[in-house]
Design goal:
53 residues; mainly alpha; 2 helices; 66% helix
Length: 53
Amino acid sequence: MSPHSLAALSRLVGNPWLRGVALVLYYLAILLALIVMYGKGDFSTPPFIYQGF
């Protein structure tokens, strides 16, 4: 990595506005993944493993 690109990267990481936007996008992606996984309305649990005993 060149020193110029390293300095530009550290400026981006240090920008509080950009960090806030990145965090909002991160949490929205998590919520979207949960909606995709559980949005079908099937909240049933798997069968209990020790039912046969």
